[in-house]
Amino acid sequence: MSFFDKIFGGKNNNPERKSFWKNIESEEDLNKAIESSYQHRIAIFKHSTRCFISKTVLNNFEKEIDNLDEKMDLYYLDLLEHRPISNKISEDLGIRHESPQLIIIEDGKVINSASHEDISISHIK
Q1: Is residue 80 within 8 Å of 10, Cβ to Cβ?
Q2: How many domains does the chain contain in total?
Q3: For site-directed labelling of 120, which of 12, 41, 68, 104 has its Cα 20 to 30 A away?
Q4: What letter would DSSP give residue 13?
Q5: R_g over Cα of the chain
């Protein structure tokens, strides 16, 4: 791996993620996530694996999330691999696409969202 790959993420599009993430890789996964929002709040993190800012925000968020004591399912969406699903989220939930983006959903509706450096655990609590 070159020096620039180490700094900017290089060609590794599937970096190791924390075990608490549930992947959204299909419309069925998205539908299950939305359905679970009727039992408890969920969060969807939309991430661009080639964006340095997105990678930094994701890493910072994962560090913060270790302190979350609330019951919440955390979903991860790789925007580059699953852009049609990201578009469906925007259309179905009436929220503008951004990347990176954290979307909090309760009872099938967006109750909060944040993008870029504004993403933090405070949007969940």
Answers
A1: no
A2: 1
A3: 12
A4: S
A5: 14
Could you tell me the two tokens for 87? 């578009």
CATH of residue 56's domain is 3.40.30.10
Predicted confidence at residue 1, as pLDDT, reads 47
Please choose, from the candidates 60, 74, 40, the residue with its C-alpha nearest in 3D space to the C-alpha of residue 119: 60
Tokens 């933090």 correspond to what residue? 120
Question: Residues 6 or more apart from 65 whose CB is under 8 A from it?
Answer: 18, 20, 74, 121
Whole-structure pTM value: 0.83
pLDDT per residue as tens digits for the range 50-102: 999 999 999 999 988 877 767 789 999 999 999 999 999 999 999 999 999 99
- For residue 107, is it within any domain? yes
Do 123 and 61 form a contact (C-beta atoms < 8 A)? no
